[in-house]
Design goal:
80 residues, 4 helices, elongated, 0% strand
């Protein structure tokens, strides 16, 4: 989402805008991608919480990169 190679933030920020630009209709919208990313992040957080609550960490470790992904904010606009 940082790169926004289809320029969704400008031309298809909402689903309605994506429909107005025919070539972008199959790419989705910025808000749609943001919602999907937030849902995936929430699911990952829930999985990590369940893993910790069941004390699975006694036997296995979740890689640092996975845990850090679960707390990384989803970009509100392209760029860094």
């Amino acid at each position: 989402m940082y790169d926004d190679k289809h320029n969704l933030y400008v031309f298809a920020r909402t689903t309605a805008q994506a429909r107005q630009h025919g070539q972008l209709a199959s790419k989705g919208s910025w808000e749609g991608h943001q919602t999907a990313a937030n849902n995936l992040k929430a699911g990952l957080q829930n999985d990590i919480r369940e893993f910790d609550e069941r004390e699975c960490n006694k036997y296995y470790r979740i890689p640092y990169a996975v845990r850090s992904t679960a707390i990384t904010s989803i970009p509100s606009k392209p760029g860094r």
